[in-house]
Specification:
Elements (H helix, E strand, L loop, with lengths): L2 H22 L1 H21 L8 E7 L4 H12 L3 E6 L3 H9 L5 E5 L3 H6 L7 E4 L4 H25 L7 H8 L16 H32 L13 H31 L8 H22 L6 H18 L11 H7 L3 H15 L7 H27 L1
Parallel strand pairs: 1-2, 1-3
Antiparallel strand pairs: 3-4
Helix pairs in contact: 1-9, 2-8, 2-9, 6-7, 8-9, 8-10, 8-11, 8-13, 9-10, 9-14, 10-13, 10-14, 13-14
Length: 389
C-alpha cells in the first residue's frame, strides 16, 4: 500500500469523523445550517425597501406667507417626507423630536417672504435626528430639492428684460445637470450593505462551527479519529480532512448567499456565476484554514461565541465598505488585510454591483490565494500540536 493511498485514507477518516460530529452536534447545526439560511433572509427582508419613505417631520411656520405655504406643500408632496405636525414654536417641535413623534424639523422664519421679495437672501432651517442617517438624508435632500425648484421660479419671475420663456429658463439655470446613480440605481441602503454582510456571514459562521467542534475536542482531549496514523504530515492530513467537510457544506451556502438571495429580493446582481465560483474557491479555503488556525484559542465551546460576536462589527468596518478604505489608519488597514473577508467583500461588491470580471479583481483574488497558502500551513501546525497535546 503506497504512502499516498494511506494519506488519502487518513484524510477520508478525518472527513468522516468531522461530518459525524457535524451532524450530531446541535450547536454546529445551528450555526452552520440554520444561521446561513435564515440570517440573509432576515437582513434582505429588513432592507428590501432600500430607501425610507414618508419620514415624519414637524413644521414651525413663523412666516405664514404664500411662500412658506408653497414650501410646506411641496415638501409634503414629496415621496420621502411627510409633514405630520405643525408646531407653534421651536421648543414645542424639539419636544416632538425627543418623544420620537417626528424625525426632523423645518423652521420658516418670520422674514422669509419679505427678504425674498426684497431680493435678499433668506434662510430655512432644517433640524434632523442624526440617530438614523437615512432619515437625515431624506429630510435634508427633500428640503434641498424643493428650495432649488423654488429658487428657479423666483429667478425667472424677477426677470423682465428677457423676451422668451426659454431665455428665462436658461438665465435661471445656465448650467443644468443630470443625476445618474451608478452601481446602486435605487440609492438604497440594502444594495449598499447587504453584499458585505452576506460575505461576512460565511466567514463568521464558519469560525463558529469550527470553534465549537475544536472546543469540544479540547474538552474531551480527542483529536484523532480511530485508525488514523500519526506521522510527519499528520497536521496537514487533519487540516485537509476537516476542511473538506466544511467546504462541502459551505460551497452550497456560498452559492445560496451570493447568487440566490440577491435575486430573490431584487438587489443588484450583475456578476458572472463562473467568476464568482472561481473567486470564492480560495475564499472558502482561506476561511476554513483561518478558523482551524484560530482553534488553538478555543479551549471551551463557549469561548468561540465571545470571539466571533465581538469581532463581527469590527471586521465589517475593516473591509472598507461602511467606512472609506482611504480613511482607515494604516495600522487597522494592516489588521484588515489579515482577514479573508476583507478582500472577499471588496471583490464581491465590485463584481455584483459594478459588473467587474475576475480580471478586474485580481488584487483581491491573489490576496485570497496567498492567505489560503499561509493559513493552511499554520492550520496544519496547529492541528499537529493539538493532536500531540
Amino acid at each position: 500500500m503506497s504512502k499516498l493511498y494511506q494519506d488519502i485514507c487518513d484524510i477520508c477518516l478525518v472527513w468522516r469523523d468531522e461530518m459525524k460530529n457535524f451532524v450530531h452536534d446541535e450547536g454546529i447545526l445551528l450555526f452552520c445550517l440554520l444561521i446561513p439560511f435564515a440570517y440573509p433572509l432576515l437582513y434582505a427582508w429588513i432592507y428590501n425597501n432600500e430607501v425610507v419613505r414618508e419620514v415624519p417631520v414637524v413644521v414651525v411656520d413663523d412666516s405664514q406667507s404664500a411662500f412658506s405655504r408653497e414650501f410646506i406643500q411641496s415638501v409634503d408632496a414629496s415621496p420621502d417626507v411627510r409633514v405630520a405636525y405643525r408646531a407653534g414654536s421651536l421648543d414645542e417641535a424639539r419636544r416632538m423630536v425627543e418623544q420620537q413623534k417626528v424625525s426632523g424639523i423645518y423652521y420658516l422664519p418670520p422674514e422669509l417672504e419679505t427678504n425674498v421679495l426684497r431680493g435678499q437672501q433668506s434662510h430655512i432651517s432644517v433640524y434632523t435626528d442624526m440617530a438614523v442617517t437615512l432619515y437625515y438624508k431624506a429630510i435634508f435632500q427633500t428640503a434641498t430639492a424643493v428650495v432649488g425648484e423654488m429658487n428657479k421660479d423666483i429667478r425667472i419671475s424677477s426677470m423682465t428684460a428677457l423676451t422668451t420663456q426659454r431665455d428665462e429658463e436658461i438665465s435661471a439655470a445656465p448650467l443644468s445637470f443630470d443625476e445618474v446613480a451608478m452601481f446602486n440605481p435605487a440609492q438604497g441602503y440594502g444594495s449598499f450593505i447587504l453584499p458585505a454582510v452576506l460575505i461576512l456571514i460565511i466567514q463568521q459562521t464558519l469560525m463558529l462551527g469550527i470553534g465549537l467542534s475544536e472546543g469540544t475536542r479540547h474538552e474531551r482531549h480527542k483529536f484523532l479519529p480511530q485508525g488514523m496514523r500519526t506521522g510527519r504530515a499528520m497536521g496537514l492530513r487533519l487540516a485537509l480532512g476537516k476542511g473538506m467537510a466544511y467546504f462541502m457544506v459551505y460551497a452550497v451556502w456560498t452559492a445560496y448567499l451570493t447568487l440566490v438571495v440577491p435575486r430573490w429580493f431584487s438587489f443588484v446582481m450583475i456578476a458572472r456565476p463562473t467568476d464568482l465560483i472561481l473567486f470564492f474557491f480560495p475564499y472558502l479555503v482561506a476561511c476554513i484554514s483561518f478558523g482551524l488556525m484560530l482553534s488553538w484559542l478555543v479551549r471551551y465551546r463557549e469561548n468561540v461565541l465571545l470571539l466571533v460576536v465581538f469581532t463581527s462589527i469590527p471586521f465589517l468596518f475593516l473591509s472598507g465598505i461602511s467606512w472609506p478604505q482611504s480613511a482607515i489608519p494604516p495600522f487597522w488597514r494592516m489588521v484588515g488585510s489579515i482577514l479573508p473577508s476583507t478582500f472577499a467583500i471588496r471583490g464581491y461588491v465590485r463584481m455584483a454591483s459594478m459588473g467587474a470580471t475576475l480580471g478586474d479583481v485580481l488584487v483581491e483574488f491573489r490576496a485570497l490565494w496567498i492567505q489560503t497558502g499561509i493559513y493552511l500551513v499554520l492550520a496544519s501546525i496547529v492541528m499537529r500540536r493539538s493532536a500531540k497535546s
